[in-house]
Amino acid sequence: MGLLRTLLTFPVSAPVSGALWIARQVHESADQELSDPVAIRRTLAELERALEAGEIDEATYEEAELGLLRRLQEARR
User: Are 47 and 65 in contact (CB under 8 A)?
Assistant: First the structure.
């Protein structure tokens, strides 16, 4: 019965399984990017450049910097 069920539900279950696999891969990649110290430092540098260019104000910079520094600290653990 298991093989018959697998064969009958394959047209529906295969695309769903593929979509779930893709979602897991995207999630893992995003987690790695969020916890990568190099990426966090790069974002900090971009943030500082934006502050110096006048694209953001001091309050926005400090808030974003605090969040990035917390992420960096977590990534080092």
Answer: yes
